[in-house]
Amino acid sequence: MAYVGVSGAAGKMGRTLIQMINRTEGLILRAAFEHPDNEFIGSDAGSLAGVGNLNVDIQSTAELLESGIDVMIDFSVPQATLSTVEKCMSAGVGIVIGTTGFEVAELERIRRASEQIPILMAPNMSVGVNVAFKLIEVAAEILGDTVDVEVYEMHHRHKIDAPSGTAVKIGEILAETLGRSLKVDAVYGRVGATGARDTKIIGFHSARGGDVVGDHTTTFAGTGERIEITHRAQSRDNFASGAMLAAAFIEKRRAEKSTGLFDMADVLGI
Question: Which of 60, 75, 165, 176 ranks highest by number of CB atoms within 10 Å?
Answer without folding.
Answer: 75
